[in-house]
Amino acid sequence: MQMQTSSPCRPARRRVPLALAVALCTVAALCVSCSGHSLVPSEDFDVLVYGGTSAGVTAAVQASRMGASVALVAPETHLGGLSSGGLGWTDLGDKSVIGGLAREFYHRVWLHYQRTEAWRWQRPEEYGNRGQGTPAVDGDLRTMWVFEPHVAERIFEELLSEHGVEVRRNEWLDRDGGVLTRGSRIERFETLGGRAYSASAFIDATYEGDLLAAAGASYRVGRESAEEYGEQWAGVQKAARHHGHFFPAGVDPYVVPGDPESGLLARISPDPPGHNGQGDARVQAYCFRMCLTRVPANRVPFARPPDYDPRQYELLLRVFGKGWRETFRKFDPIPNGKTDTNNHGPFSTDNIGMNYDYPEASYERRLEILREHENYQKGLMYFLANDARVPSDVREEFAQWGLAADEFTDSGNWPHQLYIREARRLHGEFVMTEHECLAKRAVPEPVGMGSYSMDSHHVQRYVTEEGFVQNEGDIGVKPQAPYGIAYGALTPRRQELTNLLVPVCVSSTHIAYGSIRMEPVFMILGQSAATAAVLAIEAGIDVQDVEYARLRERLLSDGQVLEAPSRE
């Protein structure tokens, strides 16, 4: 685990000479001179939200509803993050604690699918009411929790438009000295496109925590040790078995089976994994949440990528050789004959071990990581559908699937958002740990609730002492009841920054973040962060000094849920 303590106006580690604009995880580079603070006039707002995630959208909408002038400045072209980027099979936990703008979003999803014309490729009765541990459609509460990517994006855009939010797309923060702070306050920041923005309060709603890091807040990358916070599930967890994403016994890792001298197959680390409970700087795996279909009129067959190398997938053949047949387990159905396809199994869409430097990487390096993940996953799809060595029962069924032609239409039907499951995490006024998630300790001043399992995907793939391949890091520990998320987890340390709030890269340990990091929770915390920001501006105080009673009153009046409903 790495901990960084940044100082105000500290230049980033890597100079960024290019501005990047995302389209299909491809970024067009524009030459820009980055030489410290310029005299570019800034656009001025009460609240400035950086990051076009679902939390960024709800934060901007809430600030506008409270009468503040607000801008959403986003490096993204498409807004909504993973919620519009393929994750339509919502990770809910307990839906009763999802309130406010988050619940309004899911209500608007419900309204969309009440229309006959919304069902182009499937009749509603054919879809049924399939969800994840809870019905997808809740008619009594007029909410729907499962949806197509383009529907989510349209709803986010409508919310922003209805509230008159100023949106600036393809604006990349100048992380190399582009953030101006005075004392403990951010005054303005500049983008690589040559624009500047100032505000009374700032919200970092990115998955990466770029603004908080560039502005001088302390943060962490990686996994804490079990000793640091006394957490049972912290650090390396070689013995844990949760999702079934582990290799069956006896899978040989070597190019020539049984011969270590022949070298390791692709995508197996030669490094030792560490001992149980040991902290490290590794982060859990990323993937793309693909939207697939086998409706012939809407299906785009899997294409052979330009850099296709079947040797990257040899290890999967050995898994099939052990009789494993769970290939289609996470083709989760969303409306219109489509899927939200997620990782499942020991060798799947998670690109294990290929993202360790992503949180701190330059924009150029992140682009390389994005492209590597895209090429890996596209190659895997082509391999499964076409390679003659894949068992025929798997290959023939897989060949019936393809990308949905009516999704991600400006990016070759490939998702525009990589699933950044974890990057930087703020080290703020309060640190959420497994003790709060598991109700072993009370949570002070809650501003939202979480309820999903403490969920980490695998972090590394290694060779065991017995000479076989295995994965490590997959954890799933379910809280007994919903838990509060402390306001202090959204605020930096008082001595560092006093006008910044962080609803995505919240202050928490790795294992606690595994539960907090769900899209509905990000929407909840985005709304709560904006509420606190506006209250701080109105009172002329630091965000750390917002009176909790006032904050709580406003959150409840806006429909947020701060205690679990009684089950009596």
Helix percentage range: 10-25%
Q: What is the gyration radius calculated from CA atoms? A: 23 Å
Q: What composes the largest sheet?
A: 7 strands, mixed
Work out the strand percent: 15-25%
Task: Determine the mean pLDDT.
Answer: 92
Multimerization status:
single chain
Instruction: Determine the structural class based on helices, strands and strand pairing.
Output: alpha+beta
Report the total helices. 13
Total number of beta strands: 27
Q: How far is the N terminus from the C terminus?
A: 43 Å
How many structural domains in the coordinates?
1
Give the low-confidence spans: 5-36
Overall, the morphology is: globular
Write the layout of secondary structure elements.
Elements lengths: L1 E3 L13 E6 L2 E6 L10 E9 L3 H12 L4 E4 L26 H14 L10 H4 L9 E2 L4 E2 L4 H14 L3 E3 L10 E4 L2 E6 L5 E9 L5 H6 L3 E3 L4 H4 L24 E3 L2 E6 L27 E2 L5 E3 L12 H8 L9 E4 L3 E4 L21 H24 L5 H7 L3 E3 L20 E2 L7 H4 L8 E5 L3 E3 L3 E4 L5 E4 L2 E3 L5 E4 L13 E2 L8 H7 L2 H21 L8 H10 L11
Detailed description of the structure:
Helix 1 packs parallel to helix 12 and helix 2 packs across helix 4. About 6% of the residues have low confidence. With 568 residues, this protein is α+β, with helices and mostly antiparallel strands. It has one domain.
Descriptors:
globular, three-stranded antiparallel β-sheet, seven-stranded mixed β-sheet, 27 strands, 568 residues, alpha+beta, 24% helix, single chain
